[in-house]
Amino acid sequence: MMGYYILIGAIALVSWLVSNKLKSKFKEYSQIHLQNGMSGAEIARKMLSDNGINDVKVISVQGQLTDHYNPANKTVNLSEAVYNQRNAAAAAVAAHECGHAVQHAQAYSWLTMRSTLVPVVSVASRMSMFVIIGGFVLMSIISSGVGFTVAVIGLGLFAMGTLFAFITLPVEYDASNRALAWLESSNMLTSQEHAGAKDSLKWAARTYVVAAIGSLATLLYFALQVFGGRR
Description:
The chain is mainly alpha-helical. Helices cover 76% and strands 6% of the residues. Helix 2 (40-50) runs parallel beside helix 4 (88-105). The longest helix is centred in the C-terminal third of the chain and has 40 residues, at 146-185. The chain starts with a helix and ends with a helix.
């Protein structure tokens, strides 16, 4: 299991570095105050209106970087800082989350696929590690193929989470592209403000890339252990 701990440690380190970089970027661009004086909430409502979306509410939620779009109840949930503040970072996040609302309204295929997988992946992700480890235990104590079969089932469950992580990538990048295109076409931001918003979203997207690569690396590691153990 030493290899597993090294892998998890490496993934955690990269994730921590990217997350810290993201936080520092948001802190930096939070100092760039918008010349139009609009808050994140006002920008979100404006983007929704410009896209003909009138059935989505913009609400404030507690926490930091807790911003998200909920397709179930059609709400753009903005953290208190993003909801109230009037800077490039807040504009970027607010527009990005509205990008998801636009995707939903237009039945964007990748978002539809991800939403369909959510209930299945939520169960699979909780069970996968227990099933894989259970398979390893059975492989070590009995000679039949039961342990191998259990471990393969666990790999299948884990693979669903990995697939979900990769499906998330085009969803997040597309939402950012929609946000930046609207911010530019509507002349919401100055060139400096737009550059800050773009850089903020770039680092936010990288957190999803790290998560997807980490999930794939973990899946491949366990696959090697399962099929190598069988030999």
